[in-house]
Amino acid sequence: MSLPRLLKHALPALLLLAAACAKKEKVVIFATGRGQGRLWARPEPALKDKLAGGYAVFKRLYDGENAPKLALDTGNLFSATPEGWLTRGRSAADCLGAVPYGAAALGMEDLALSPKELQKLAEGSKVPLLASNLYLKTNKKPDFLRSQVVLNAGRRKVGVFSALITAPGKPNRAKYLLNYKLEKESYETARAVKALRDSGAEIIVMLLSVNPKDKAAPEFFKEFLAKGPRIDLVITDEPSVKKPFKAGRAWVAPAGLETLHAARIELELEPATGKVKDLNWKKLPLLQEKYGQDQGVLKIIAGHRKYASSHFARKVGFLTDPLPLADKDDTPAADFTADCMQRWARTNAAIIGLKEPAVGFSSGPVTVGNLYSAFPLDSNVVFVKIRGDDLERALAAIPQGEIGVAGLQLFYKDGVFDHAGTGRGPLVPGHVYRLAVPDSFVGGKDNPVLSSAMEFANSRRYLREVVGWCFARQRACGRPAGGRLVRN
Fold first, then answer.
1. d(CA 302, CA 31)
2. Distant-in-sequence, close-in-space partners of 334: CB < 8 Å, separation ≥ 6
3. Which among 43, 197, 256, 391 would be 20 to 30 A from 478, CA to CA?
4. In the structure, what pLDDT confidence band is assigned to residue 211 with cuts at 50, 70 and 90?
């Protein structure tokens, strides 16, 4: 066959091949995180008080996307709302399943759930819950959670895994929590990526959830990803990450937070290999007037709201006098709470951080909702045993105006701690005192009370529950003769 004739027959095939090579292949990932139980749209000051946020709006946005797509969440599902707290994350999980999301990671705040509560959440969720570096105290991985999952987006297989980072400044250290152990993230990352590759995943996505009480600088991501296996995309809930950047071979992109925004991450792929060539990222406000709301998700939300409204309206007691956060030099709400902890725990004394109660109480009926609003930290009451001299040193290390006490008097001269005593006189150095404190007050290893204690044990009872017990039995806040904090 002559060359011109050969070209005539081959040209259409060559043109089709060139067109196929030139055509861009895309996969779109919508990423959210730190929803913390925020289920529906609400007025947002940063968006000129327009109604924004919620899963019903997000589903309309998600359904409007025509490209191959996935929705992923970085975790922290329930901690900021009454509905989230009451259902222990089930309300958010139901909304994730209705969108539907492909997978969701667990965040640090989700680990406030006991293993039984977490198992109930995972088994009731339609969405796989991921926790690649999470172990039980028995050093076994929870069999009710997934370490990784392979999802389909169009004709591509996307492998997704997660990692919880407790201390970005000190990476790759095992972390022991009340009910769980977090293993070294680099080791678990290598295991998860290998498992995903062996399962045929072409694109590897990591959901990286950072401890909300800490911060991960860009250097952390670069160092963490420098020596590990190839990851195509890291989605993080770290608020300081404002836009995508490259860390080695991986893209790092922020998720939309608090269900007010969703991140739309468009991956441009090489058609022949499926490798990520480029990334386009947008932070999309979930505006109700723009996208509308999905009626099916609204029905799910309405059911949870109705249940929560009934529960939180339940009366637990009555106050004849209000308990404000502050009244001149006194702190009535904290003082009442300290008295309550001491009485409930039957201890010698109680100490509470003044930041524990978020709001005070008005006179009249007290409801479960009032308790939740006043104590949003999910703190448990902790029993502590400590010698008198160690307790006095610990109290001296706490700045004036940061704590309330019961069963103790703290004496200050010119704003400086002088000594402490009980109703029977000064603290006895070698005597062992039993204290009740919220775990939010002894949460850090450098805390003077915790580091000086002989022993401590968590009661596993929420502080708000203990205060509710007291409201049903006590109607006023006592004031010791001479006051609790004696100045000059």
1. 24
2. 325, 352, 354, 356, 357, 404
3. 391
4. very high
DSSP state of 111: G
> Average pLDDT, stretch 391-415?
88
Q: Any bridge partners for residue 422, and if so which?
A: 425
* Backbone φ and ψ of 135, nearest 5°: -130, 155
49 Cβ neighbours under 8 A, 6+ residues apart: 43
Q: Which residues pair with 458 in a beta bridge?
A: 382
CB 130 within 8 A of CB 343: no
pLDDT confidence of residue 7: 47
Give me the pLDDT at residue 397, please: 86
Q: What is the pLDDT of residues 59-89, one digit of tens each?
A: 999 999 999 999 999 999 998 888 898 999 9
CA 450 from centroid of its chain's CA atoms: 24
What phi and psi values does residue 371 have, to the nearest 5 degrees?
Answer: -65, -45
- Mean pLDDT for 211-218 is 90
| Structural domains in the chain, sorted by start | 20-308 (3.60.21.10), 313-487 (3.90.780.10)
Give me the pLDDT at residue 327, please.
86
- What's the pLDDT tens digit per position in 401-410? 888 999 999 8
Cα 85 from Cα 112, distance rounded (Å): 11
Whether 391 shows a pLDDT value over 70: the answer reads yes
Partners of 367 in the beta sheet? 315
CA dihedral 464, 175, 148, 35 (to 10 degrees): 30
pTM of the prediction? Answer: 0.81
Specify the amino acid at residue 301: I
Q: Is the pLDDT of residue 14 over 50?
A: no
Task: Please provide the DSSP assignment of 26-87 as one string.
Answer: EEEEEEEE--TT--S-EEEGGGTTEEE-SHHHHHHHHHT--SSEEEEE----STTSHHHHHH
* 134 CB-near residues (< 8 Å, 6+ apart): 106, 111, 141, 142, 145, 164, 180, 181, 182, 183
pLDDT at 478 over 70: no
**Other beta carbons within 10 Å of 53:** 26
Strand 380-387 and strand 432-438: pairing? antiparallel
